[in-house]
Amino acid sequence: MKKTALALLVAVAAAPAFGADWSTTELHYQLGSLKQNPFGSDPEQKSTTNIYTLQHASGWKYGDNFFFIDYSDWDDGQRQRDWYGEAYFNFSLGKISGADLSLGPIKDVGLVLGVNAGGDSKIRKYLPGIQLALDVPGAAFFNTLITAYIDDNLGVANGGAPKEGDSWMLDTAWAFPFALGNHDFSLEGHAEYIGSRTNEFGDKVKAHILAQPQLRYDLGKTLFNDPQRLFVGIEYQYWHNKFGSDISESAVQGLAVWRF
Question: Hey, what's the signal peptide range on this chain (predicted)?
Answer without folding.
Answer: 1-19
